[in-house]
Design a protein that fits this description.
2 domains; FAD/NAD(P)-binding domain; five-stranded parallel β-sheet; elongated; 28% strand; alpha/beta
């Protein structure tokens, strides 16, 4: 007879690992399913984390290792699998389907995360964490009094540029159209900020540098004219995509995020969501860790009520 878990956690980024730590301490029989060879999610590609309490200056890879080691030391069990779907059975259990195996559980925490939309240009991957960033609030402090660029035209891009303008000597904001899509109040603030320079009707064709970003190759989409912008860093804000494929059982918003509040409860009792995959205002390591803890608390309440 196959083992029935109290809890299966899908994903082992900060939210999933936090949930594993709290779940093991709550004496839940749990399994963490991770599709990648290494835990950590997006933080693996973060060169330096400067805003997580008590671990100032740690690089993302080392932080991921510490989080995973903590969970394993407490006894969390991991399986390297790709989850393809979740089904609810007539007996109230959930069936978690994977590429090679199927698991049964009383509850599920979906902590599968999200990924940043990429520009998919030369230099982006090679210089990731070396001047290429997707989070101004995470990495902006490293560019104090330097020159940076933001790519995008929505709310996040405008907010990033305004945030960086308080730290950087100069900020370019590169947008493929001749007007921004972001909120009017953000546009007004940005356009009235002296050290922010919009680069209209333009796209980035290449990110240049050897050990760090040194410049951007930019092309005007209307005239075809190309130019080089010398920058120390580039912040790409062209969208985030939740990793929510296969989770059609629960409600998602128009952008694909799983609808869940601070307690992690989704539209399906017994299924919870934590971290970047759920609807939320701030997606940071510290909020993901908090989500994991909150979701396990909700799991405990759910299991107690069912008994």
């Amino acid at each position: 007879m196959p083992e029935i878990y109290d809890l299966i956690i899908v994903g082992s980024g900060p939210a999933g690992l936090s949930a594993a730590i709290y779940g093991v301490r709550a004496k839940l029989n749990l399994l963490v399913i991770e599709k990648e060879m290494m835990s950590g999610g997006q933080i693996i590609n973060t060169y330096e984390v400067d805003n997580y309490p008590g671990l100032m200056g740690i690089n993302g890879f080392d932080m991921a290792v510490k989080f995973r080691e903590h969970a394993e030391k407490l006894g969390a069990v991991f399986a390297e699998e790709t989850v393809t779907g979740i089904e609810k059975k007539e007996n109230g259990l959930f069936q978690v389907r994977c590429a090679h195996q199927t698991y049964e559980t009383k509850t599920v925490i979906i902590a599968s995360g999200a990924h940043h939309s990429l520009l998919n240009v030369p230099g982006e991957t090679e210089l990731g964490g070396k001047g290429v960033s997707y989070c101004a609030t995470c990495d902006g402090a490293f560019y104090k009094n330097k020159v940076t660029a933001v790519v995008g035209g929505g709310d996040v891009a405008l907010e990033d540029a305004i945030f960086l303008s308080r730290l950087c000597r100069k900020v370019y904001i590169i947008h493929r159209r001749n007007e921004f899509r972001g909120a009017k109040i953000l546009q007004e603030t940005l356009l009235s900020t002296e050290n922010i320079e919009p680069v209209w009707d333009s796209v980035v064709d290449r990110i240049n540098g050897t050990d760090a970003v040194s410049s951007l190759s930019v092309r005007n989409v209307k005239t075809g004219v190309r130019k080089e912008l010398e920058v120390n860093g580039v912040f790409i804000a062209v969208g985030i995509v939740p990793d929510a494929e296969g989770f059609d059982l629960v409600s998602r918003d128009e952008k694909g995020y799983i609808v869940a509040g601070e307690d992690g409860r989704t539209s399906v009792p017994g299924i919870f969501a934590a971290g970047d995959v759920r609807t939320k205002g701030l997606r940071q390591i510290v909020t993901a860790v908090s989500d994991g803890a909150n979701a396990v608390t909700s799991v405990e309440k759910f299991l107690t009520e069912k008994r």
